[in-house]
Write a structure and sequence with these properties.
single chain; 3-stranded mixed β-sheet; 1 helix
């Protein structure tokens, strides 16, 4: 069974994390969305994203993590 969740919002904010490889962008995203931290994380290939709904006026923020390597 497939469930589709329709979310209505007035504003959509996106945060894009950009920086060199190995500086901690993925861990910032992990801490922000799941309140976790991983010392042995691997390099991101391409793009990864996660969503967290903030309780401040019901706003939705999507945080995106990018690969720090130039080839991506």
């Amino acid at each position: 069974m497939s469930h589709k969740v329709d979310q209505e919002y007035d504003y959509l904010s996106k945060i894009l994390l950009i920086g060199d490889s190995g500086v901690g962008k993925s861990n910032i995203l992990l801490r922000f969305t799941r309140n976790e931290f991983c010392l042995e994380s691997k390099s991101t290939i391409g793009v990864e994203f996660a969503t967290r709904t903030l309780q401040v006026e019901g706003k939705t923020v999507k945080a995106w993590d990018t690969a720090g390597q130039e080839r991506y």
